[in-house]
TrEMBL record:
InterPro entries per the UniProt record, alphabetical: Transposase_Tc1-like (IPR002492)
A GO molecular-function annotation: DNA binding
Residue span, Transposase Tc1-like domain: 38-109
Annotated GO biological process: DNA integration; DNA transposition
Pfam families cross-referenced by the UniProt entry: HTH_Tnp_Tc3_2
Name the record gives this protein: Transposable element Tcb1 transposase
Length: 114
């Protein structure tokens, strides 16, 4: 194995102390939603694509019956691969339209304003 000697010593020591080599809990603020609530958020947004994060945050209560923020909803959706997108605003052009516009521009390229 290509491991450092110190790594092996620390893993053996952790195994002896805790009977496992898995990571210990780390410090930090606890999450305000459970994994089940996160899955429900994603499921609701998959069912209703037009549901906003603010509406979803008003409907969802986190742990200890507290309200969750819109940014929390956005983060949970983002980690699952869902992102907000704005619809394309403009003319929907086919290849034929694009070709005709290019021809028109080439014909009128030499025109000057009077």
């Amino acid at each position: 194995m290509n491991l450092n000697r110190t790594t092996i010593i620390r893993l053996r020591q952790r195994l002896h102390e805790t009977d496992t080599v898995s990571d210990r809990p780390r410090c930090g603020r606890p999450r305000c939603t459970t994994q089940r609530q996160d899955r429900n958020l994603v499921r609701n947004h998959m069912k209703n694509r037009f549901l906003s994060a603010s509406a979803s945050s008003r409907q969802t209560r986190g742990r200890n019956n507290q309200l969750i923020s819109e940014n929390t909803v956005r983060r949970r959706l983002s980690t699952s691969g869902l992102r907000a997108r704005r619809p394309y605003i403009g003319p929907i052009l086919t290849q034929r339209h694009g070709h005709q516009r290019t021809l028109w521009a080439q014909e009128h390229a030499a025109w000057d304003r009077i």
